[in-house]
Amino acid sequence: MTSKLKSSRGITLVELMATVVIIGIIAAIATPHFQKAIERIRFRSQTKNLVSMLRTARSHAISEKKPYGVAFDFSANTVSLFLDSANLGANTYEPGADSLIAVDTLPPEFMSCYSTFAGSAVVFQPNGSASSTGDINLRAATESEISESQINVLASTGRSKITYICNMGGYEQVN
């Protein structure tokens, strides 16, 4: 009897190289989509961070029975959480006089941002109400798209919420 040599099964180098090339092409096509997705996530995250800072100020005001506020300096791309200890009732942020709690720096992509609050600050009272009703409008420009969002604060309740986020033609209503 003759023994048969068993043929070894496996993949050839050519098949392996073809697979690597196909995966490389798919990755090259998908990379710009991932970059846009990451930019959108960063913008949404920063918008949510601002809402979080507003809610933190309101929470401190209620729990500590003192007015806390958030001041917006979009020329320096900063947002500041402060204890309103100077000139109570004016509902403004006075650097050096009011106690600064935290400062958040907005990314350099943020441009033409503005708030409709008097003095670019909103102050939350111990009962939870805000100094006035207003909006914070954010706009960021990256290499691939322009993103916009709006945050609304209601004076009577102090409630802060994102009213919309828009990414390069894609409009999303947020409730």
Write out key terms for the chains shown:
1 helix; 4-stranded antiparallel β-sheet; 30% helix; 5-stranded antiparallel β-sheet; alpha+beta; 175 residues; minor pseudopilin epsh fold
Q: What is the architecture at the second tier of CATH? A: 3-Layer(bab) Sandwich
Count of alpha/pi helices: 1
Mean pLDDT: 85
The CATH superfamily bears the name: minor pseudopilin epsh domain
Name of the CATH first level: Alpha Beta
Query: What name is given to the CATH topology?
Result: minor pseudopilin epsh fold
Description:
The protein has a single domain, classed as minor pseudopilin epsh fold (3-Layer(bab) Sandwich), CATH 3.55.40. The chain is 30% helix and 30% strand. The protein has one helix at residues 13-64; strands at 68-73, 78-83, 99-105, 114-115, 121-124, 134-141, 146-153, 160-167, 170-173. It is elongated.
Q: In a few lines, what is going on in this structure?
A:
This protein has one helix at 13-64; strands at 68-73, 78-83, 99-105, 114-115, 121-124, 134-141, 146-153, 160-167, 170-173. By secondary structure, it is of the alpha+beta class.
